[in-house]
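Extended Data, panel c. Modelled sequence:
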Amino acid sequence: MKIIKFSLAVAISTAILSTSAMADSWKVTQDVDVSAVGANTTLTQTNTAAAGTSGSVQSLNNINLDTTDGIIDTGSTQTVKAGANTLNLIQAASTDTSKQAANRAVAQTVTDLTQDVQMTAGTIKLDQNAATLATNTQAVNEVNGEVITKLEQKITSTGTTLDMNQEGASTQNTQVGNLLSVGVSTATSGVNQTITVKDVTMDQKSTTSAFQSGNAMLIGDGSAVSGGSLNQKYTTASTLAMTQDGTTSSYQSANYAGVKTNP
């Protein structure tokens, strides 16, 4: 298996280097193309040392703006093209409060953004193994914002398998295909989350307060959501299999909208 970490073909119209430097409106175009590589693309967070991997972020495309006044402007796009290959996101031993995504965007306002993962076959695998610690997140497409005007999140391939696996007693770990986390949502033009794949498997074993979903809009507990529109569409050409084995206060769903409660 070939592991690709930094030698990716990336076209970025605006270089986003730090949240402190961004208090403005940005039109951003990001593209990662690994469709011709012929091997797996793997992102791994792990550390068996006592301190572990804490508060870390891995992604192929990342827009990281100020959460007070950063704006992702009209026509912004994040695209990952993986062809018939496999995309692996792995969180392993001692990983804590960390995040992984293919496309990830953080800003106060999302005026207009499209996140798209394009594949012809292969597998998208999200794996949080038994040694993973707490409050970790894995997503194929992820957006965190306060005001969302227009957002399109897409995972498209009728020949691809989406495989989510959570295992272990650690608490409040999250896996989602298309993830939107909002404080205040004014989705006047709408939010569209779409998954079209061949097969989907979701497995939770011995988890506590774990969360798995294909599409999810998660509202911050106590947030004032001021309306808008949300469209979630989940289509499998063959199999949708969801399994919970020995779980406690854990969630599984194809589509989810609302507050995620972690008892």
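The radius of gyration is 17 Å. This feature is highlighted in the accompanying rendering.
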